[in-house]
Amino acid sequence: xxxxxxxxxxxxxxLKTRCGARAISAILACLLLHVPLARGAAPVSSEPLTNAAxxxxxxxxxxxxxxxxxxxxxxxxxEPGWNGRFFIQDASGGIFAEKxxxxxxxxxxxxxxxxxxHPGAYAPIVNASWWKxxxxxxxxxxxxxxIEKVMSGVEDSQRVEVQGIVRSVTIGRDRVDLELASAGxxxxxxxSPPTNIEPKNLIGAKIRVRGTAAATFNAxxxxxxxxxxxxxxxxxxFMEEPEQINPFEKPVLPLNAVAQYRRDIxxxxxxHVKGVVTLQRPGEDxxxxxxxxxxxxxxxxxxxxxxxxxVEAVGFP
Length: 317
Known about the structure:
By secondary structure, this protein is mainly β. It folds into four domains: 2-34; 52-136, CATH 2.40.50.200; 143-241, CATH 2.40.50.140; 248-315. It has helices at residues 2-16, 21-34, 52-56, 60-63, 147-152; strands at 68-77, 85-90, 93-98, 109-118, 125-136, 143-144, 159-171, 176-182, 185-191, 206-218, 223-231, 237-241, 271-281, 285-289, 294-298, 310-315. The protein is elongated and about 75 Å long.
């Protein structure tokens, strides 16, 4: 670069002529002004970052410089057993924060948080040095986004709205785990459904949920594995359409017809099959056989069936 050679020549001349330190300093200052930042480098400010979106926008190496952060927002998720971990959202968006081994705030708490940035195991997070509750507020509105965008991981830490067909229900101590199928994707919803709905009646139902998206990941590689949605309040759970017919009341479908063309096929509906048990692995699966063919049935049901016993099953093909 011509300008660089010129400045170096000025420096050599200054040293040879023993010019004053002030002149050399001026030349060095000129050189620094003309040196471009390294590609991808971001200027580091001593001012604290004051919104979640700014922190999430940091490259991992910059977030790893432990920049000062000072946020005020609403806690959107803080699950029992998370030991000081929680999601917080301000006007710019949401982010994951933690102050380990201390009680977590509660969803709906408005808190002020001071800490440092950290690259996180997937997206940048905030390591809090302290936080203080300043009040309470409703959870921020959830964004209606396409399921493809949610499953890409770009909505990590954000309040989103998703809908789909419930494929399975697992009742936990604090939450109900719903496996949701939507546009060919599968994700788990951890929620508190309304008390007037029996959880087992949710299977096959079309639901809509507003909650915070949280990526599951391989921390070593910083790669996403999947997405979960946390919806702590029953008000964020909506039954759109229950399963229309008890699947055990539907006609029995021959086993070889499960994957064949039928004009009455409706996506997301369970089918009814019947056959003789040829093998069972309790809690995993069983194999059925009828006069037309065989079928592999996946089931976490632990009830034991003997080989040769005739059973009926309903489920999603």
